Amino acid sequence: MVSEEFRSLIRAEGARLYRDLPWRRTRDPYHIWLSEVMLQQTQVARVETRMPAWLERFPSVEALAEAPTSDVLEAWQGMGYNRRALALKRAAQEIMERYDGAFPRETKELVALPGIGPATAQGIRAFAFDLPGVYLETNVRTVFLHHFFPDVPAVPDRELTPLVEATCPLAPEGIAARTDGASGAERFAVPQDAEDTPRSWYYALLDYGAYLKKTLPNPSRRSAAYTRQSRFEGSRRQKRAEVVRMLLDARDAEPAGLTLQDVMRELDHFEAKAGRGPVDSGLAASILDALEQEGFCSAVERDGERVWMIA
């Protein structure tokens, strides 16, 4: 049983450390979804500067769904993991096709959309709709590891999930469901007051967790889910990102597109600038084939050569 003292502490720390971020000034699920995806691998300050430009270009789910893939990828450059931009567009298309542009609220419907996992789904549910659930991301893990598992290594999420669930409050209107014995309502905490909602609770956890990570040896490293980011410089991942950039640059060329030799020549130049040797043709070909299979680009035959063009 998690004590009310713990919940009161988190709420007080959350109020003290509250960060007034742009996506916290709205309940628009599109804006909140976008912030959740952008924040997965990007610092808060960078998201604050990049998100307005994105929303100016794609102001709604409908605008994103209708945008050319190349425009979406271009707008995402510098935010890491181009797959996420592709998933954003595909999910927007499904929201338009299956839900007439209205975001679903149920977890099973959200996680069925491209690129939306359990944490992102619950972020949308909590911050857009004030619905209770388990929002388990790195800052939230940090808080629970620090308070409940201070000296335990490799703590699995299955140990954290019941604690996160038990501390998340019902929205105030959900108290009636708990009183009426509605299925699942008893799993969540009774709100301490009208301001104690899933949205405000998880903001408090996020801000307190971010503070703990700055002031203590990062407790989230003791999570079994913790993985150190692989080296980007010189990696295949970096070369993939560079090939996507090349394809974007080549979309308006005459003729449009790139051959394998074009890609190898530009990759070799890119690697030489970093003091590395030339790229193996097999590696370059496998990157192009993977990008084609994932929907980033398409290939055509031109003058006996295969030419790749951004989707």
Distinctive features:
311 residues; 5% strand; mainly alpha
What can you see in these coordinates?
The protein is globular. Helix content is 56%, strand content 5%. The relative contact order is 0.11. The protein has helices spanning 4-17, 29-38, 44-57, 61-66, 69-76, 82-99, 107-111, 118-129, 138-148, 157-167, 175-179, 198-215, 236-249, 260-273, 281-293, and strands at residues 258-259, 297-302, 305-310. With 311 residues, it is mostly helical. The longest helix has 18 residues, at 82-99. It contains 15 helices and three strands.
DSSP helix count? 15
Oligomer state of the chains in this structure:
single chain
Across the major sheet, the strand order is: 1-3-2
* Straight-line distance between termini: 52 Å
Structural class: mainly alpha
User: Which value, in Å, is the CA radius of gyration?
Assistant: 23 Å
Anisotropy-based shape? globular
Secondary-structure element pattern, one letter each: HHHHHHHHHHHHHEHHEE
Q: Which spans of ≥5 residues are poorly predicted at pLDDT below 50?
A: none
What is the averaged pLDDT score? 91
Describe what is shown at a glance.
With 311 residues, the chain is mainly alpha-helical.
How are the secondary structure elements laid out?
Layout: H1 4-17, H2 29-38, H3 44-57, H4 61-66, H5 69-76, H6 82-99, H7 107-111, H8 118-129, H9 138-148, H10 157-167, H11 175-179, H12 198-215, H13 236-249, E1 258-259, H14 260-273, H15 281-293, E2 297-302, E3 305-310
Antiparallel strand pairs: 1-3, 2-3
Helix pairs in contact: 1-12, 2-8, 5-6, 8-12, 9-10, 9-12, 13-14, 13-15, 14-15
